[in-house]
TrEMBL record:
Biological source species: Sinorhizobium fredii (strain NBRC 101917 / NGR234)
Family statement drawn from the similarity comment of this UniProt entry: Belongs to the ABC transporter superfamily.
Gene3D superfamilies: P-loop containing nucleotide triphosphate hydrolases
PANTHER family: HIGH-AFFINITY BRANCHED-CHAIN AMINO ACID TRANSPORT ATP-BINDING PROTEIN LIVF
Name by which UniProt lists this protein: ATP-binding component of ABC transporter
One MF annotation (Gene Ontology) recorded for this entry: ATP binding
GO biological processes: L-amino acid transport
């Protein structure tokens, strides 16, 4: 029998106040996979990630993770399950230094990365221990935001548009780091608009439109389905 997915999302609905934003999202993620959520602005990608960690209004459906329904887990306990969220705005503490930012979140899980290991993965941060968060470039802040999550011991990472507004050379470096993490068995959901970047790391892609998953495309089939995908994206 095939192994159960690490995460199985079924009929996920979500609201912000009265506004019904997700209308029955279905997708799954297997252990060690990198899966992307793609779609136009406002399709519901960020809301899907936020629903998994419990920071939207009302939710309905099921998000079964390691046998437990995340919709029944209090938001402050989700990190203890090994799930790490890196928001689009990164959430770096600007008044703290690089090292302080890395050391700030508790290491919830055993196996969290040591600071030196994080510097190995993101050499741009090395030697910047005392630099304040605000003095980093956007790309370096993104590296710090990912590094901070790796320190907690998370082995399932939700990454919201890590390439947004970042220089191409830094995008390459972030991609290289994510491929190393994938090789080490990390599971990743990536919200991404940059298809080239998504294709360089993902196994499968889910297309969202108006709060629903409307298509699933394996990475191998991405090129052959580019016209279909561009129609969804309105390109
Ligand atoms: P983007 O790339 O623009 O972030 P997205 O696919 O991630 O797009 P979401 O951010 O999930 O889309 O937004 C889905 C819908 O929910 C949009 O119509 C958006 O306007 C609405 N929305 C997002 N955040 C809120 C909020 N805090 N309150 C009310 N509505 C919201």
């Amino acid at each position: 029998m095939a192994e159960a997915p690490l995460l199985d999302v079924k009929g996920l609905e979500a609201w912000y106040g009265e506004s019904h934003v997700l209308h029955g999202i279905d997708f799954d993620v297997r252990k060690g996979e990198v899966v992307t959520l793609i779609g136009r602005n406002g399709a519901g990608k960020t809301t899907t990630l936020r629903s998994l960690i419990g920071v939207v209004g009302k939710r309905r459906g099921a998000c079964i993770y390691k046998g437990a329904d995340l919709l029944k887990v209090a938001p402050h306990k989700v990190a203890r399950l090994g799930i790490g969220y890196v928001p689009e705005e990164r959430g770096i503490f600007s008044s703290l230094t690089v090292l302080e930012n890395l050391l700030f979140p508790p290491a919830w899980q055993a196996g969290g990365m040591a600071v030196d290991e994080i510097y190995g993965l993101f050499p741009n941060l090395k030697g910047r221990d005392s630099t304040s968060g605000t003095r980093l470039s956007g790309g370096e802040q993104q590296m710090l935001a990912i590094g901070r999550i790796l320190r907690t011991g998370a082995d399932f990472i939700l990454l919201d548009e890590p390439t947004e507004g970042i220089a191409p050379v830094i995008i390459e470096e972030i991609g290289a780091a994510l491929r190393i993490l994938k090789d080490r068995g990390m599971t990743i959901i990536l919200v991404e608009q940059n298809l080239r970047f998504a294709a360089s790391i993902a196994d499968r892609h889910y297309v969202l439109d108006q709060g629903k998953v409307v298509d699933e495309i394996s990475n191998n089939a991405l090129d052959a389905n580019m016209d279909r995908l561009n129609r969804y994206l309105g390109v």
